[in-house]
Amino acid sequence: MLSVLTNAFPAWVLLASLLALYHPPIFTWFSGPLITIGLAIIMLGMGLTLEASDFGGLVRKRRLVVLGVVLQYTVMPAIGWLSATIFALPAPFAVGLILVACCPSGTASNVISYLARADVPLSVTMTAVSTLIAALMTPTLTALLAASRVDVPAVGLFLSTVQVVILPVAAGLLLKRWLPGVTRAILPAAPLAAVLMITLIVASIIGAGRSEILAAGSRLLLAVFALHAGGFLFGYVLSRVLGADETAARTVSIEVGMQNSGLGVVLARQNFADPLFAIPSAISSLFHSLIASALAGVWRRSGTRRAAPRNAEV
Predict the structure, then answer these.
(1) pTM of whole model > 0.85?
(2) Spatial CA neighbour of 78 closest among 151, 146, 149
(3) Are the C-beta atoms of 96 and 268 separated by less than 8 Å?
(4) How many CA atoms lie within 13 A of 166 on its CB side?
(5) CA-based torsion, 97, 101, 105, 109: positive or negative
(6) I need a surface site. Which of 17, 67, 210, 256 has the fewest CB within 10 A?
(7) How many CB atoms lie within 10 A of CB 183?
(8) Angle subtended by helix axes 134-146 and 120-132, to nearest 10
(9) Domains of the chain
């Protein structure tokens, strides 16, 4: 039953998002510190599935880390600019779309990698690296492609990454090492807990931006969908062409296709007076979650085992 509920992740995300659009208070209570706590719980669950030795191989996988980060900051900005141009978006929506396309991947990508039985340690590392260099890459690429300069809070990004990724994963590793009995009791419910947390987070963001999302035109919706669909597709195809194996290609696809939409919203609100600049990021949180969760369901059921089978036992 737990497996069935977990594999229904796309349905839960879609249903919660529709409910959030219909009546936002159902989910908007889940905001602020609750989102941080929810992400920390998710990452703790991931840590329970890992072994310390899983991270030792990352030295040998440094080529994959570089590949994923390079694709993150080339494929997505390019598709963002092309989508804004092809769909002839108004200036606020165009700049907002390019801004979120230039953001790093977020912790949600680690959740999807976890559910898709991809390489979680590789995913966490790529997320951390892309986040740390966002201070340089996001404003530079946004300025280049949208002729607008955005200041990125590098220290805040670093501290947030440590808080909701590194520390919870480390806590999970220690818990598995020193309290194996507790770990065995928690582990079966960990994937479902991740599904519930990410569903609440997505629905909360959608509910908070309800009026703006409903007012957005079909061109914007298609442009945001094209951004993420293209990111997943080219992330997978290009990584395979460049020599990545199936598991690594799935991981890179997820990292490239998913953006830190929450960061996009914050940067847009802090740096642009017009609230319309933040709308593409709000819609992005829904579309990348739906596409990613559908892929996670397909890949999870495919039966393909990844290189570190311990991580696929959940």
Answers:
(1) no
(2) 146
(3) yes
(4) 14
(5) positive
(6) 210
(7) 17
(8) 70
(9) 2-303 (1.20.1530.20)
